[in-house]
Amino acid sequence: MAFSISSRAVAAAALLVALCCCGGIGLPTPAAAGRIDEGLEVTWGDGRGSVSPDGETLTLSLDHTSGSGFRSRDTYLFARADMQIKLVPNNSAGTVTTFYFISEGPWDVHDEVDLEFLGNVSGQPYTLHTNVFANGNGGKEQQFHLWFDPTTDFHTYSIEWTNQHIMVLVDGTPIREFKNHADRGVPYPSSQRMRLYGSLWDAEDWATQGGRVKTDWSQAPFAAQYRNFTAASSPSSSSAYGQEMDAAAQQAMKWARDNYMVYDYCADSKRFPQGVPPECSMH
């Protein structure tokens, strides 16, 4: 099915922005002036990751030899991170563009909050793949299509990680909330510092339609752009973080999930024949 945005969806999205602005979530504020490499450093790719001369944009590229990636210079224990990203245009099948938190200790007990943008053939929507790991336990995938073309302009993707919840937002609209139910036996990332990472890499074995569509290397090099990175640490007691969503925010998230969620582990009875994980029924 070709990717198109109906006038109804555009109108709904405009209403949604109004709801968010009035409802206390707010659209992200612009980043303070400064070079993006003051907060981020390219860590791999043998020159395939670069920062523009003015310091505003970090570009990652991928060819048949290698992808590239960066990481934040700081680590965080509870933070709000915002990044504007313009994804790989045209036929991006097989490619994955990422922005995520991950701890740097032993893998078997690692924490992670993933945003992975799975490429697709021209004219079809990107899939935003999200997941949460705590103490090495993951498998909490939710996937979404976006209500705009993420390759023609920059859009803001945010991860809010507090002692109360993890929230994923797209242009200020919440699409996912994972609450802290550690007191009820559900692992939650709350004790390990995490660093922010980003990458562009080849995952043709699984990224697009389960690996059925492979990377077209005649389209290489592929490139994704990042700008306006902000990350603010937050103590769990901060009044600016961890608040319950108000009615407008809840309505905005319901709209996004009802219209654009394409996979939810909590609804996958084939995967969990003995019953879905316990947090799926917790509020």
Automatic annotation (TrEMBL):
Question: Which enzyme class, named as a word?
Answer: transferase
Q: Which Pfam families match?
A: Glyco_hydro_16, XET_C
Matches recorded under Gene3D superfamilies: 2.60.120.200
* One GO term of the biological process aspect: cell wall organization
EC number(s) on file: 2.4.1.207
> Which UniProt keywords are given for this protein, alphabetically ordered?
Apoplast, Cell wall, Cell wall biogenesis/degradation, Disulfide bond, Glycoprotein, Glycosidase, Hydrolase, Secreted, Signal, Transferase
* SUPFAM superfamilies, per database record: Concanavalin A-like lectins/glucanases
Q: Which residues are glycosylated?
A: 120
Q: Where in the cell is it found?
A: Secreted, Cell wall; Secreted, Extracellular space, Apoplast
Task: Give the highest taxon in the source lineage.
Answer: Eukaryota
GO MF annotations, alphabetized: hydrolase activity, acting on glycosyl bonds; xyloglucan:xyloglucosyl transferase activity
Residue intervals of the GH16 domain: 22-226
Concerning PTM, the database record says: Contains at least one intrachain disulfide bond essential for its enzymatic activity.
According to the record, the signal peptide region is 1-33
Where's the active site on this chain? 112, 116
**Which PROSITE patterns does the record associate with it?**
GH16_1, GH16_2
Q: Does the keyword Transcription regulation apply?
A: no
Q: What does this protein do?
A: Catalyzes xyloglucan endohydrolysis (XEH) and/or endotransglycosylation (XET). Cleaves and religates xyloglucan polymers, an essential constituent of the primary cell wall, and thereby participates in cell wall construction of growing tissues.
Family statement drawn from the similarity comment of this UniProt entry: Belongs to the glycosyl hydrolase 16 family.
Name under which the protein is recorded: Xyloglucan endotransglucosylase/hydrolase
Species name: Urochloa decumbens
